[in-house]
Fold this protein.
Amino acid sequence: MKTITMLPALSVLAFPVLYFAGNSGSQAYSAAGLFLLLFGLMTPLVKKLLRRR
Amino acid sequence: MEFDIWRWCAALTPIVVLLILLVGFRWGGDEAASCGLLTAIATGAFFFGAGWDMLATAAAKGMWNAISIIIVVFPALAIYQVSRESGGFAAIRYGMEQFSPDKVLQILAVGWIFVGFLQGITGFGVPVAVGAPLLVGLGVRPFTAVLITLLGQAWGNTFGTLGLAWDGLMAQADLSDPFVWRNTVLWTASMLGIANIGAGFIITYLAGGLKGVKRNGVTVLALGLLQGGGQLWIALLNPMLSNFIVTALALGLMFIIGKLPYYQRSAEDSGPVRKTEPNSRENRMSMQQAFLPYVFLTVIALVVLLLGDVKDYLGQWKIALPFAGKTTALGIGTASYSKYSPLAPLIHSGAFLLVSAAAGYYWYYKKGYISEGGWRRILNNSFLQTIPSAIAVLGLLAMAKIMDDTGQTAVLAQGGAAAAGPLYPVLAPFVGLIGTFMTSSNLSSNILFGGFQYKVAAILKVDTAAILAAQTVGGAIGSIIAPSKVLLGTTMVGILGEEGEVIRRFLFVAMLACLMAGLAIFLI
């Protein structure tokens, strides 16, 4: 649970990755940035699912 | 790009997913945002030919836009926590009882008039963030407090915030013809005025049921006419100040109304108002002192925004990022920006709120209303409450920007226009509503769709002024169901996760209001 509470930080980390990868045209890093963002933003959803279990 | 029904359906999917999760499954905005974003990424990549780099750039732009909202959330929560910690809310409740024993009038004063006044000068969700906890302090149930503040701020979305959304609309359409400009003002101000009277009556109903409407109907009508009529008249002279002037006048008038013998008699109240217990310790503070952070907020906002020199001096510090232009496989391109959406932190509403919270804290601490170590509790609670809101706002605005940059938003609007044909005026307010629903901002909706509505009006040879008015009025109405604004309210009153329920309650109201505006334009 402690790890999950730290997950939103990933969405903050995603910003520089998205920004630099997107601007430079790097497809792989851009996809990684989007994954990072989604992973960070899914924290409340993960918490919801864990609470249900 | 040629219109394609499948592509239109694909573009609609992220909004449908978001609505189903929020309204159907009653998920919170923070829970649904990531699913909406994932869907927008998928449709952008697979149906609109966007590369990963384009999607990443759009998501980064959306996150950048989200900062403007997040820097309002934290200080708004801080100002709320300062009032809570000092016992200010209890003093406001006590003071309002002295102002008038009529609960419904108290709620109208805060939830309709004061919230409208805040929208006139600040915007960016501040009226909801400030008004909802004040109403809870008056004994209104948290859920109802959110509904009331959303209604109270809606009409001021176009000419409020010193006419920012109106300026956005003007920037997107050629209104050099004074006749068209004048008609656009007349259409917009008339429809907003009527919407505001409607909102006043719904607030009265929420506060006191039919009995409340019967007792306060004339007051609501008089204040609504003063605000609507006043805005209509002043907007023709100065759109920037029109909303602020009439809401300030209405605020003054409200205090006079409260002193009338009619309102000094107690009215039996029912409905959503919780019975509150008499206060003891907190009553040491006067209502004037309890309102101090909000007085600071008003004074700071007015000084900074109305004094051109102060605004120019503080506004010279801007933060902006360059963004490269990108193009999809379908040929939809985005512009390259050397300074994308500059943020001037010192003239931002967030800065006004932060300074007001700090000044309020200092005052209360000096007067002994806040105990030692209070600042730590205030900061800690504000930070913890900001996180879920920030997650939702980041996700929703990244989703909106991806849809915009990859052409999904434009396809949605084009499809609507193509299907509606001569009936387009009926549809026009809904386009504005979608823009605000997605971006939580009337200004952004006008920037997003203002140019499009202008072009459609020219192609279909319908009244440009009426269509532009429909755009911004639809955008203002959309603010009552905009997830980020709803989130601000639910976060502030501690009912996070009930955003879907709030949107569900207002979806029909918003649709009906847009339909009425559209029909009025079509028939007149």
Q: What stands out?
A: The mean pLDDT of chain A is 89.
